[in-house]
Amino acid sequence: MGDPKGFLKTKRYTTLPRLVSERLKDYNDVVPLRADAQSQEQSSRCMDCGTPFCHWGCPVGNYIPEWNDLIVAGRWDRAIELLHAGNNLPEITGRLCPAPCEYACVLGINDDPVTIRENELAIVEHAFAVGLIKPQTPVVRTGKKVAVIGSGPAGLACADQLNKAGHTVTVFEKDRKLGGLLRYGIPDFKLEKSVIDRRLNILQQSGIVFAPGIDAGADISIEKLKKDFDAICLTGGSRVPRDLPVAGRELTGVYFAMEYLMQSNRRISGELIAGNAIDAEGKSVVVIGGGDTGSDCVGTAHRQGAIRVEQIELMPRPADCRTDTCPWPKYPPLFKTTSSHEEGGERQWSILTKKFSGENGVVKKLHCVRAVFEKDTTGKQVLKELPGSDFEIVADLIVLAMGFVFPEKKGLIGNLGVEIDERGNVKTDANFMTSIPHIFAAGDIHRGQSLIVWAIAEGRRAAHAIDKHLMGSSSLPHS
Length: 479
Known about the structure:
Strand order of the largest sheet: 3-2-1-4-16
Strand content: 15-25%
Radius of gyration: 23 Å
Shape: globular
Number of helices: 19
Oligomer: single chain
CATH topology of the largest domain: FAD/NAD(P)-binding domain
Helix content: 25-40%
CATH architecture of the largest domain: 3-Layer(bba) Sandwich
Number of domains: 3
Mean pLDDT: 96
CATH class of the largest domain: Alpha Beta
């Protein structure tokens, strides 16, 4: 390693976000990029440990100790090669990944872990800045054609890998612009869309054909897809949101998180919005759901000018540090304060929403009760309301951010007739093939709602399976 005692000399430092008073005025990235010198210093904390559990904790198996060493040595050219060897979209995971690798870092046993995620971002941003990332068109084409349906992280990773193998790849996307929920579901203050466009430009110049605004199975028939392509990979994500079927759900002012976030992102990018505007300006906003999507809604409401923002969650408040049930190196469900929470608002846990009420068809209040999970006689966790704990929350806008249940069945999946598993996802065999020959599935559509890094991993593994299916063998990595 560059400095075997670096972890003894240097403490962990993470880049501070812009001031709240500044960042609430725009939708630009909350956290500025770190200077290369700081990244080299932080990378020197990597211990050269005998068994790098960070590699185990990373779904794409990033070569973390190796590229940390290369950063320290100033070998940015080799570092980006190694980074791309395991991750097709490091500029995305470097900004958005919750970094399970850092929770598995050996240094984290008795000290603060290495800033792996920021180091990853430093590599790819340096590489883009100095022109190290260039289109790479395959020298030889196989003559095989593959359709990838969906342009989210799983679809882009799968398409990139298959293109490198020499196949001719077309990516279909039903939205007007490419990127899936990376573009429409994640606010610009976490991921500016120029970051997506920069990578898409590289992929397009490398030979991938993009077909946005085409609903596969509707605008182009299933029969034509099967006829024109040797293999098809479904990577449409898991977009059916979890609903809250309580009295008053039909009132105006109650929306799903994706309705809210997608409309906000479209307005920021200058796209025309159909239907009524969902806007938090001058309103009391309640976000139901304590995860990252809920946090994104909180940050968006702040920027739109909400007068009050509150986020409530059914589950109890997470622990501040590891418990016996989640020892190192597992990824722990710890209490997290995001940049959106730092910007203001209130948070409550163990809150059950009983109903909504309003006036003239418009929501005005949530009716809630405090609740706890207790074990019954069989050991099963049961939700119980606390007597006398009923209360109300005034709200003009309610956002349901309680996650997603499964992919949309209406349209392509239903028309294809692929087998569905017990969780409602597209079922595949060990090689990512669905119940229909030559049709594969990867990402959330197959795995269920999960992390972006898992979608990338699935896309890469599916590409290996597709390449092997088409050619008899594959030189593409399994992950």
